[in-house]
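Reviewer has doubts. Consider these tokens.
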Amino acid sequence: MPHAGGSVAYSRHRPGLCRPTRGLAGMLEGRRLYFGREIPREPGLIFGAAFDRRVKQRGAAMNVLGIGTDIIECPRIGKMIENHGESFLRKVYTEREIRYCQARKHAIEHFAGRWAAKEAIMKALGTGRSRGVSWTHLEIRNDDRGRPTVLVCGGAREVARERGIADILISISHCRTYATAYAMALGQAPEPPPTPPASD
């Protein structure tokens, strides 16, 4: 989803946008990206947060509608940020994701993890980057326990509804060199037929 509003500026007198990990020495050193006011977002569907509660309450079975996995080299994402800066960040990540990653100790790894997660989710949706699904139609969030959840909006939301996706589970792992993610799209299993009454 396109971003609008807010001011953007770089400063070489403040801490860096991305603290470089070893092997990425000097990357983005002395840069910081500033955003203005919070950008309104259209309503979306949040997946992943309520899965455990729903299963415990209903004992509901879920149909697996799609799976996806992705792996990316962290230095590759670092180079993309170094070479393209703001245009790359705004194309791939929402403002909330940028703020989250830049606040982490190893920001490049977190940016790479969210890249891998979005690729995995697009594969689970069965679309890739097509059918009107763009990077910012997917937003990776973390719940109170740090578990990743997914906000889908725009084209991704429409695809999820068309396919009957009731939840998307996501797992992300990363180190200095690689980030990987796995996504599973789930549909609600149909209710079992009622048990016929016992005959006398």
